[in-house]
Amino acid sequence: MTETNRVVEAFPVAPVQTVLDALHDPVRLEMVRRLANAGTPVRCGLLYDTINKSTATHHLKTLRQAGLTEKIIEDGQTYARLRTEEVARELPGLLDAVVAAANRSEPKD
């Protein structure tokens, strides 16, 4: 992604209870898992399969308000980025453990 016409929206990392509450939902956990495995910002539409756009928007907002992700709007496209470093600084080891557990429980194709 280039720096042209770019808007970023992020919140501070929330307390552990809020972060865990955000990760408790299976849809949001899957979004975080996909973002972590991608290692780069991902177009929001690629983060969900079985829900409609308005529900996905709600889940992405919840993750953003918990400080787990940031929204990047660039040249009319919306991306989500997992705030790995920021979360690790505030809640060391939490995100790595949650994503590793989610990857282990994901059925293999």
From TrEMBL:
Entry superkingdom: Bacteria
HTH arsR-type domain ranges (all copies): 8-102
Molecular function in Gene Ontology: DNA binding; DNA-binding transcription factor activity
InterPro entries assigned: ArsR-like_HTH, HTH_ArsR_DNA-bd_dom, WH-like_DNA-bd_sf, WH_DNA-bd_sf
Keywords noted in UniProt: DNA-binding
Xref: SUPFAM superfamilies: Winged helix' DNA-binding domain
Record's protein name: DNA-binding transcriptional ArsR family regulator
Taxonomic placement: Bacteria, Bacillati, Actinomycetota, Actinomycetes, Mycobacteriales
